[in-house]
């Protein structure tokens, strides 16, 4: 058992932005959180890690309500990489990654050998070892993103929540990152916009629309032409070239545009 949400709701400005959401990410697997802009992906990730409390419903970690657990115990288990994670202080890459060890250390205790190994390993795995001493403001957007992911890895989480982690990353680093997440074998929930990346790397996908789960299942079950038209308003050709349940999606056009200007 791991992290799960049961009938979770949350409102903002008098409007429900999560409306009875239930998700049960398979342990040790990668779950993709999909859905259009504003569908509630980031809010759900923040509720799953306890940063936001649900107005109703419950999030559990190993069957225990998150609200009953100590913040520090949750932080030892669950690592989060938010969108546009930034730091204002003048830290080096290694300093940022060391922050990932905070939940494992006593206040003011120096870094142990195990802490340093975890930091070193995280820098290696994200390809940042040669930039460990660089200051944050000298990094490119993609390097900053990778440094935040390295921080999350240094935390040695059993649950990993990533909000659009491939933003800012070039093609190679997008694939390297999602490959790495798969290889970690921790329970991961990853908000993604790219359906082909979701199909390639996720074991399970959950599609949100206006704060509700539309459908959940394997990429092959969920990512159909009908679903993509319905949820995204996009006409797509979906094929499964390797017949492995990992579909390939080719966008043919947007339905709003086609309706506005029908083909003559
Ligand atoms: N603090 C807030 N106050 C008011 N509205 C909010 C607040 N936080 C989120 N919302 C609204 O809730 C909805 C869901 O937002 P959320 O960021 O969770 O969506 P998302 O699926 O992650 O979107 P995107 O793909 O654009 O990142 C949006 O309409 C957003 O404007």
Folded structure, characterized:
This protein folds into 2 domains: 3-218, Rossmann fold; 224-264, no CATH class. Strands 6-7-8-3-9-10 form a 6-stranded mixed β-sheet, sandwiched between helices. It has 10 helices and 12 strands. The protein has helices at 41-48, 71-77, 93-98, 113-125, 141-154, 171-184, 195-201, 219-222, 225-232, 255-260, and strands at residues 3-12, 15-23, 30-34, 56-61, 64-65, 78-81, 159-163, 187-191, 204-209, 212-217, 234-239, 248-254. The relative contact order is 0.16. The site of adenosine-5'-triphosphate (ATP) has 11 residues, from helix 1. Adenosine-5'-triphosphate binds at residues 12-13, 17, 35, 37-43.
Summarize the biggest pleated sheet. Answer: 6 strands, mixed
Uncertain spans: none
Specify the overall morphology.
globular
CATH topology of the largest domain: Rossmann fold
What is the total domain count? 2
Cα distance, first to last residue? 55 Å
Order of the strands making up the biggest sheet: 6-7-8-3-9-10
What keyword list fits this structure?
264 residues; ATP hydrolysis activity; 12 strands; 27% strand; ABC_transporter-like_CS; 6-stranded mixed β-sheet; AAA+_ATPase; ABC_transporter-like_ATP-bd; alpha/beta; binds adenosine-5'-triphosphate
Short account of what is shown:
GO terms for molecular function: ATP binding; ATP hydrolysis activity. Helices cover 33% and strands 27% of the residues. The chain is of the alpha/beta class and 264 residues long.
What is the fold's blueprint, element by element?
Elements: E1 3-12, E2 15-23, E3 30-34, H1 41-48, E4 56-61, E5 64-65, H2 71-77, E6 78-81, H3 93-98, H4 113-125, H5 141-154, E7 159-163, H6 171-184, E8 187-191, H7 195-201, E9 204-209, E10 212-217, H8 219-222, H9 225-232, E11 234-239, E12 248-254, H10 255-260
Parallel strand pairs: 3-8, 3-9, 6-7, 7-8
Antiparallel strand pairs: 1-2, 1-4, 4-5, 9-10, 11-12
Helix pairs in contact: 4-5
